[in-house]
Amino acid sequence: MKILMLTPYLPYPLYSGGQIRSFNLLKNLSKKHQITLFSFIRSEKEKKYIVSLKKFCVDVKVFVKRPPWSITSLFLSAISVYPLVVCMYLKKSLRTEIAKAIEKEHFDLIHAETFYVMPNIPPNKIPTILVEQTIEYLVYQHYTESIKFLPFKLIMNFDVAKIRFWEKRFWSKASRVVAMSEADKNVMQKFVPSLPVDLVPNGVDTEFFTQKNIERKKKDKTILFVGNFKWLQNREAVTILIEEIWPEIKKVLPKAKLWIVGRFPTQKILHYASSSIRISSDISDIRDVYRSADVLLAPIYGPGGTRYKILEAMAAGVPVVTTPTGIEGLGAIHGQEALISEKSAELAKETVRLLTNSSLYRTLVINGRRLVEKRFNWKTIASNLDQIYQKATYEKKH
Prior knowledge:
Layout: E1 2-7, H1 17-29, E2 34-41, H2 50-53, E3 59-64, H3 71-79, H4 84-87, H5 92-105, E4 109-113, E5 128-132, H6 136-144, H7 150-173, E6 176-179, H8 182-191, E7 197-199, E8 222-226, H9 232-252, E9 257-261, H10 267-270, E10 277-280, H11 286-292, E11 295-298, H12 308-315, E12 320-322, E13 339-340, H13 344-355, H14 358-375, H15 378-397
Parallel strand pairs: 1-2, 1-4, 2-3, 4-5, 5-6, 6-7, 8-9, 8-11, 9-10, 11-12, 12-13
Helix pairs in contact: 1-15, 6-7, 9-13
């Protein structure tokens, strides 16, 4: 099958969850399909990574994305019907190139990652799969709720309304929509009852992440948080972790250390560094981090998708303490594959309980690894997506 794939980021190097997902899908799907990739980049420097993707793609074409707060993006958002997140990706040259490729290559299918790249696809009769890694309006709505400055809050609420409108509109325009979790699927079908939604969760490379030694002998425990801090949910999670949860843990485990790992830390996050809190943004191999950690603590409250940090930790043999939102879509059961609680105080207690109970620790490590091996390896996930491709093209023909 000849496939045109459109992504809002270059799927290499593997710095973000979206890049990890797209790269692994390309890697596995390319064994069966001919894929042409159209992708956005943040700067010309990223062009050096194209060669790594041509191993899996027939061709790779890239286009520079506008910065979110550029004058052009803000102007387009102000005068057009589109929200800011769409205006950053509106590109006339991309639309022209896609039209040329469609006419020349006669694609069997178009795969679009995220609704906000969809306006760049010209009118055509090719079946289109829209993959929603998160429900975008819920992410921005969650962020807007925390804004105190009323004029900015009103502007953001208006933009959220535009995101919600266009997100639903493009769901309806796609041949089929792919969601990351059952919760996301339910939201989609609540707004568009007849919408054909398939579930294709995120995955983890279980060969890359090998399980470490379960027995943790060292006395000074290391509590870990991992996340890309361009994401609002991760910035919020670190604030809650350090200001609300960490002091409670330190009361019981005074020698414990907290390790915050992730790209693009804000100045606020960097200022949290202390004798017991380490901030790292330049890790070359994330596996080294997991080998040194005793538990992943992820107080995630922002909605959307499935979390790579959770899957990676489980694959690496690091037990997880998180919120129901943080582990949404994974099917993990409290006390079996993870410890799950909503409130900060309870998350602190569960972390201490895990680190002082070797039997519970061992149970979570073994069951967490078993869960990702069975349900979240990339080969299985790519195979499921391939079946959706087949379904979409069959429905178009019949």
